[in-house]
Amino acid sequence: MYRYFVSDHSRATDRFYVTLRQEFTRGVRLSKITERALSKACISANNNQLKSWDSGLKVERTGTGFTVNRLYRRPRQDRVPSVSLYHGPPREVMAFINGFVSAVAHTSLTSIESEHPHE
Q1: Which of 98, 20, 21 is nearest to 59 (CA)?
Q2: Angle 39-70-9 (CA atoms, 0-180°, nearest 5)?
Q3: Which domain of life does the UniProt lineage start with (predicted)?
């Protein structure tokens, strides 16, 4: 099973890094991840953690798996309306969505702390 984790950010470049780690699960029965579960994860993220963003996530089925797209809520003429972020099997796509959302939450918390360091 794959999971995405937010790494500490590099102070030199001031960027956050998200890494993919493969976790081995022995003796644990893993539930099947369906297209409906992926769609619900995107809807939940769009209505909660990504609500203040100018874009949201959408999952589309392709011939060989699923694709996660970033859709801009108010498209502009100088920017494409969507960007493909990740393509893979259902488990990896779910891990990507969870990692993306946790990275957004982590980035939001650190940006608030950097704006108000002594509160």
Answers
A1: 98
A2: 110
A3: Bacteria
Give the integer Cα–Cα distance in Å for 108 and 110. Answer: 6
Using an 8 Å Cβ cutoff, are 54 and 46 in contact? no
Three-state helix/strand/coil letters over 27-71: CCCCCCCCHHHHHHHHHHHHHCCCCCCCEEEEEEEECCEEEEEEE
Region 79-104: what's the mean pLDDT? 90
Query: Which residues are bridge partners to 2 per DSSP?
Result: 22
CA 22 to centroid of chain Cα atoms: 17
Q: Which residues of 8-34 are buried (b: 16+ CB within 10 A; e: fewer)?
A: eeeeeeeeeeeeeeeeeeeeeeeeebe
| Cα dihedral 78→82→41→36 (10° resolution) | 150
Please, which pLDDT band fits residue 9 given cuts at 50, 70 and 90? low
pLDDT at 54 over 50: yes
- Cα 16 to chain center, whole Å? 13
What does residue 67 show for φ and ψ, rounded to 5 degrees? -120, 135
